[in-house]
Each structure stands twice: as structure tokens, then as C-alpha cells.
Design goal:
The protein is mostly helical. The chain is built from five helices and two strands. It is rod-shaped and about 75 Å long.
Length: 148
């Protein structure tokens, strides 16, 4: 245990990556915009095509309305993702400070904080993740069933 407290042997290299960012899709907003535009164009085109093909002119405005609704939903999704990404970035320094001294004990299969300031005792990696996410302000994104 002394070696784990003082040496880098106790620090697990993938401990930080094991925290798993709450939003694994952050940074893919352009992909959502492309998908939304493609779906909107498809809806508008389908409305026009079937209006001409089947002689039902009311399908053209239906396709246009569907396209507008798809674009509005796409904008809402992208804005929500950007809001979550800003929230995560704003608390990154606090998360780094909380996790800087964390150590993983292979024998105990748990995470501890040598100084005991952030938390005392041994925590499972899941409990550690829950503690860090809650302290960082995005604990509401955790699964209420106990799994993170």
C-alpha cells in the first residue's frame, strides 16, 4: 500500500479514460447537421415526388412541413449537445484537481485518494466515477439504476 501511495506504480494509466466522459458524442455536431439536412431534403423531395406521381398535390406541403420540423429538431439536438459540452469544459479544471491524486489499487480493485481530502476510504471504479461526475456538476447524467 505504501508503494501505491508514493509511487507511480499505484496510478493506473487508464483511470482517467475509465471515467468516460458523460457525452461520448461531443464534437459530432456536424454529423447531426448533415443527417438532419439529408433527412429534411429527403422528406421534401418525397412529398414533391409522390404529389406528382400519385396526383395528390397536398403531399407537397406535407413534405415541406416535415422538412421544417426535421430541421427544427436537428437544431435543438445540436444546441443541446453544445450546451452539455460547454458545461463539461467549464468544470474540467475541478475534475482534474479531484482526480490528480487518485490511485488505483490492483489488489483491492478500488480507487483511493492518499490524502483523503477528496474522499476517504476505498471506492470502486463505479463509485469513483459517480463521485467525480457529481462533484463536476454532471451527476444528473448518470444512470439512476447505479450503473454509469
Amino acid at each position: 500500500m505504501t508503494e501505491a501511495r508514493t509511487g507511480e506504480q499505484g496510478r493506473r494509466g487508464d483511470l482517467m479514460s475509465g471515467l468516460a466522459s458523460p457525452s461520448a458524442h461531443t464534437g459530432l455536431s456536424w454529423m447531426h447537421v448533415a443527417e438532419g439536412v439529408l433527412l429534411a431534403v429527403t422528406a421534401a423531395s418525397a412529398g414533391k415526388y409522390f404529389a406528382d406521381d400519385r396526383g395528390l398535390p397536398w403531399l407537397t406541403p406535407v413534405g415541406a412541413v416535415a422538412a421544417v420540423l426535421i430541421l427544427v429538431a436537428t437544431i435543438a439536438i445540436v444546441r443541446g449537445e453544445a450546451r452539455e459540452a460547454r458545461r463539461m469544459r467549464s468544470r474540467a479544471a475541478e475534475v482534474a484537481a479531484l482526480t490528480a491524486e487518485a490511485r488505483y489499487c490492483q489488489t483491492c480493485r478500488g480507487v483511493f485518494h492518499p490524502s483523503g481530502i477528496a474522499w476517504s476510504g476505498l471506492a470502486t471504479p463505479e463509485q469513483f466515477r459517480r463521485h467525480i461526475w457529481t462533484a463536476a456538476g454532471y451527476g444528473d447524467l448518470l444512470d439512476p439504476g447505479g450503473r454509469t
